[in-house]
Amino acid sequence: MSKSTQTNQHGFTLVEVLVALVILSIGLLGVAGMQISGMKGNHNAFLRSQAQQYAYEMLDMMRANRTAATNGDYNLALTGAVPAVPVPDSVAAQDIREWLRGVTGTQNSSSALPGGQGGIAVAANVDGTWTVTITVQWVEGRLADDTTPSVVVVSKL
Predict the structure, then answer these.
(1) DSSP 3-state assignment of 77?
(2) Full-model pTM
(3) How far apart are CA 134 and CA 121, in angstroms?
(4) What is the largest CA-CA distance in the chain?
(5) CA of 125: how far to CAs of 122, 140, 155, 156, 157, in Å?
(6) Which of 18, 21, 87, 142 has its CA 20 to 30 A from that of 130?
(7) Closest Cα to residue 134, out of 51, 26, 73?
(8) Smallest Cα–Cα separation from 49: which of 142, 109, 113, 108?
(9) What is the CA angle 37-43-44, rounded to 5?
(10) Ramachandran angles phi, psi of 143, nearest 5°
């Protein structure tokens, strides 16, 4: 009787398992990168939406107090600082103070724009109308060299 010494191998070798693991790891890293990129894009879109909401909020306040707006009481340089309120506290000063508190996060940090700043310019037109330019800007990202996007709303008053 002769016994066969032939051994049949079954399964994978260790090299094949390691190659499959490397390929799977690269694929999972790619998926994680796409997820992070998507989340960053969604967050940036959220910040842009918040900035636009703040700009339209100020425009509505100015339309409700048109006389003060056409007198230049709402003019504000693009800055993140909340201005000091004049002694006779006017509605325009209150509107600007509350608006900037929202934009900069002084009032509620959860609804603020990171590094948020706001500016308002009211200009008279030749035809007797008024043009309002509201600028809201923020820092996009966490690093000092990141971009500073802005939303600019221009409307007739």
Answers:
(1) strand
(2) 0.72
(3) 7
(4) 116
(5) 10, 34, 12, 10, 11
(6) 87
(7) 51
(8) 113
(9) 90
(10) -95, 155
In whole angstroms, how far apart are CA 3 and each of 72, 103, 108, 124? Answer: 105, 86, 84, 106
Residue 150 contacts residue 136 (beta carbons within 8 Å): yes
At 48-64, the pLDDT tens digits run: 888 899 899 999 999 99
Residue 111's SS3 state is: helix
Q: Could you give the CA distance from residue 69 to residue 57 in angstroms, rounded to a whole number?
A: 14
What is the per-residue pLDDT for 87? 46
Placement of tokens 């109308």 in the chain: 129
Give the whole-angstrom CA distance, residue 62 versus residue 74.
8
Residue whose tokens read 């191998």: 9
